[in-house]
Amino acid sequence: METILYLSKLIFALVLGVIVGKKLPGKMIKKADILLGVTLYILLFFMGINTGSIENILSQLNTIGVQALLVTVFSLSGTILVSTIASFIINTKKSKLINADGTINNAKHIVTTKDVNELYNAQLSNESKIQLRKHRFMKIVYVIKEPLILVMTVILGMLSRLFTPFFDWYTPEIITYLLYVLLFFSGLGIINSKIKIKEIFDSPILLLLPIWTIIGTYLGALILALISDFTISQSLGLSSGFGWYSLSGIMITDLGYPILGSISFLSNIFRESFSFFLIPLFSKFGRKFYYPSVCIGGATTMDVTLPIITSHFGTSFMIPTMYHGIFLTLVVPFLIPLFF
After folding, report:
1. Pick from 33, 143, 152, 299: CA 20 to 30 A from residue 306's CA?
2. Could you give the angle at the alpha carbon of 158 between the alpha carbons of 263 and 296, nearest 5°?
3. β-bridge mates for residue 98, sequence order
């Protein structure tokens, strides 16, 4: 009963955001994105404070990092396996491949990415090569900057709790209320995405994209439970964020499992970070690998990894990619409480 009540409050906050978003003008919704970002950082800071309140937390940090990495590796491995098999079965049975407009067509075997290494093989001047190296460096900085800032925010909160008396007044209820605010602004963000679900039905097979992600992620989680100290429910719950680190870790912490919340937060940060490298890699093997590419991104395909996928597979894949991310974003608040 408590789980149902908890879910109801979370869903209410998300749906309220969607309803309010439909009434607000576009400019105000875009400004709400700023408030979403501010709320996220405040939440992560207090999550760090909550983690710092755990007895002997410093001695457990190494273990948390390793466990988070294991959750990520197994979740992604299962996702890649299932989505790749699904892609080949669908394309083999239909004797077709996914076309640029989301339909199925056997004429498309092309790779749309540009291999940067080819530039080094060309006759470039030394000045051009230096500029190219700088471009590569800045791209790496861009990829890792946000995850690092997020992790540092949590660490700052934890250190503030451990080594200062400023947050002795902290109570876990603060995270709960901030979580409602975060989901409200997430609802506004869904409206801001302006996805046209009708376009997905032009290629119904793409409706199954998030299903492959869920099945693959949970397959990896089950295998992890067999070889680790995690119970099956813990492993499934830790994997249920699908890259949505700003919610998953906080929800699990709010449900009374701060250590597991920290593991979930880091593992979903890792999933998003790995996506930045794996999506371009898979795109080099052709559009048949659109399935594993989008499934790797999980819930992040509605925003963070959307530009990466569309730049490597074409803008015509934007609608199914966004649909995949929004679908997972909507089910995460339902799935996590089921396992805790």
Report:
1. 152
2. 30
3. 104
